Automatic annotation (TrEMBL):
<dbReference type="GO" id="GO:0005829">
    <property type="term" value="C:cytosol"/>
</dbReference>
<feature type="domain" description="Enoyl reductase (ER)">
    <location>
        <begin position="18"/>
        <end position="336"/>
    </location>
</feature>
<dbReference type="GO" id="GO:0003960">
    <property type="term" value="F:quinone reductase (NADPH) activity"/>
</dbReference>
<keyword id="KW-0521">NADP</keyword>
<dbReference type="InterPro" id="IPR002364">
    <property type="entry name" value="Quin_OxRdtase/zeta-crystal_CS"/>
</dbReference>
<dbReference type="InterPro" id="IPR036291">
    <property type="entry name" value="NAD(P)-bd_dom_sf"/>
</dbReference>
<dbReference type="Pfam" id="PF08240">
    <property type="entry name" value="ADH_N"/>
</dbReference>
<dbReference type="GO" id="GO:0035925">
    <property type="term" value="F:mRNA 3'-UTR AU-rich region binding"/>
</dbReference>
<dbReference type="InterPro" id="IPR047618">
    <property type="entry name" value="QOR-like"/>
</dbReference>
<keyword id="KW-0560">Oxidoreductase</keyword>
<dbReference type="InterPro" id="IPR013154">
    <property type="entry name" value="ADH-like_N"/>
</dbReference>
<dbReference type="InterPro" id="IPR011032">
    <property type="entry name" value="GroES-like_sf"/>
</dbReference>
<dbReference type="GO" id="GO:0008270">
    <property type="term" value="F:zinc ion binding"/>
</dbReference>
<dbReference type="Pfam" id="PF00107">
    <property type="entry name" value="ADH_zinc_N"/>
</dbReference>
<dbReference type="InterPro" id="IPR020843">
    <property type="entry name" value="ER"/>
</dbReference>
<dbReference type="InterPro" id="IPR013149">
    <property type="entry name" value="ADH-like_C"/>
</dbReference>
<protein>
    <recommendedName>
        <fullName>Probable quinone oxidoreductase</fullName>
    </recommendedName>
</protein>
Length: 339
């Protein structure tokens, strides 16, 4: 069975480095899947902070490039050379799938056959968008970057954001004491509702927050900090770690962390890791393992996804996601409704 696939499609492209306005809608060829790839008709995609790093030039890509890395949609073409079946399920034409693949601000997207999975029964397609980057990233951080254990004290920065809210829930699910930081009372309330035991406001003085984090963590500091804020929270992290703790720095919302000497780690024998999601899901086995881990936890109801807002799939809609997420006014996931 085949579905009529057009020759061209609408897609958001970045043709020069700059502000949100450099995201422009173009009519481009529908991508041609390789023999081992699927073609997906995109229904929903979502904004991620990384969209801003790419179009502002912090992360360097060859121009022009297409934006986006979350896909929820329907399989319209199967791979020619493979039977697309993994522990996550079998893929068929017409099947609704979720997939963390790039160039997703478009009407069609291609994915390696093994990097797409059937949307589990009972999961809203809009929640499938959060599973792609946000939840897989949080899952990788608490399993591989620092393996969170029962009784650990962990600190989650930007706790009401897309990744932050899932980290709070995963921390609680794993039995850790979750301490969080965020910028407003409303965000603090949300972080608490999602598993944080204590939430501190970044408007308080750093000295006060350090003192409170140490008090909350047996006077010894946290076992790990999960920090997507970057520059602004970097120095404070060193003051709230316990001996042999792990600083997981996974983003640059306030700017990248500065270069530093390993000697900076020695007073507390600290570890620093700077993970990104994609190496953790670079093979069929690795993707299937992490995705199954995450979807099993979702199926238990231990992770719920928050949506900030649904945006239209227009030039203005996509630009607005980037204005909003960098403006610090968002919580949870920013969705883009493609079709
Ligand atoms: P968020 O929804 O968390 O939005 C970013 C948040 O960062 C803001 O809401 C704000 O929270 C906080 N923030 C602190 N300082 C600033 C600032 N100067 N400007 C803007 N925001 C600031 O985004 P995502 O969930 O998409 O991503 C969170 C972080 O995780 C990002 O740094 C992102 O790059 C990173 N990430 C990394 C991945 C990886 O593979 N390494 C994958 C996915 C995300 P508050 O107001 O509470 O301070």
């Amino acid at each position: 069975m085949s579905t009529a696939i057009p020759k061209t499609m609408k897609a958001i492209q970045v043709e020069k480095i700059g502000g949100p306005e450099v995201n422009v809608m173009r009519q481009v060829p529908v991508p041609q899947p390789k023999d081992d790839e699927l073609l997906i008709k995109v229904e929903w995609t979502g904004a991620n902070y990384i969209d801003n790093y790419r179009r502002s030039g912090l992360y360097k890509l060859d121009l022009p490039f297409m934006q986006g890395q979350d896909v929820v949609g329907t399989v319209v073409q199967l791979p020619k050379t493979t039977n697309p079946s993994t522990v996550l399920g079998e893929l068929k034409i017409g099947q609704r799938v979720w997939s963390p693949v790039g160039s997703s601000f478009a009407e069609y997207a291609v994915a390696p056959w093994w990097k797409a999975a059937p949307l589990p029964d009972g999961v809203d397609p809009r929640d499938g968008v959060s599973m792609c980057t946000v939840a897989l990233t949080a899952m990788a951080l608490v399993r591989y970057s620092y393996a969170v254990k029962k009784g650990d004290y962990i600190l989650v920065r930007a706790a009401a954001g897309g990744v932050g809210l899932v980290l709070c829930q995963l921390g609680k699910y794993l039995g850790a004491h979750v301490i969080a930081t965020t910028s407003t009372e409303a965000k603090a309330k949300l972080a608490k509702e999602n598993g944080a035991e204590a939430v501190l406001l970044t408007s308080a003085s750093s000295e006060d927050n350090v003192e409170e984090i140490l008090r909350l963590s047996e006077g010894r500091g946290v076992h790990a900090v999960f920090d997507g804020v970057g520059a602004d929270t970097w120095e404070e992290n060193f003051k709230v770690m316990r001996t042999n703790g792990t600083i997981v720095t996974f983003g640059n919302a306030s700017g990248p962390v500065p270069p530093f000497s390993p000697l900076k780690l020695s007073p507390k024998c600290l570890k620093v890791t700077r993970p990104t999601l994609f190496p953790f899901i670079a093979t069929p086995e690795d993707f299937a393992k992490l995705a199954k881990d995450m979807t099993d936890i979702v199926a238990q109801g231990a992770i719920k996804f928050a949506v900030h807002k649904e945006y239209p799939f227009t030039e203005e809609g996509v630009q607005q996601t980037q204005i909003d997420i960098t403006g610090r006014g968002t919580t949870g996931k920013l969705l883009i409704h493609v079709s």
